[in-house]
Amino acid sequence: MTPAVPERQTSDYVRHGTTTLFVALDIATGKVIDSLERRHRAEEFRAFLSTLEVLAGLEVHLVCDNYVTHKTPAVKR
Length: 77
What we know:
By secondary structure, this protein is an alpha+beta fold. The chain has one domain (20-76). It is 18% helix and 18% strand. It is built from two helices and two strands. Strands 1-2 form a two-stranded antiparallel sheet. A hairpin with a 4-residue loop joins strand 1 (20-26) and strand 2.
């Protein structure tokens, strides 16, 4: 590296595994509920949703990406 020259890197990026992060925010209390999972399947997403405590009569708004895991019939139920 020399002054005024940006650092360069090679393009041989190696990915050593991934982690799935599910996060929910309780806006009433400011509490963040999170879950780290080794896989990103509907089973893990449903398990995360079941950990959320929802009081009867309250609205729940979910913001999800367009990933197929979030659109399975089991998750929609």
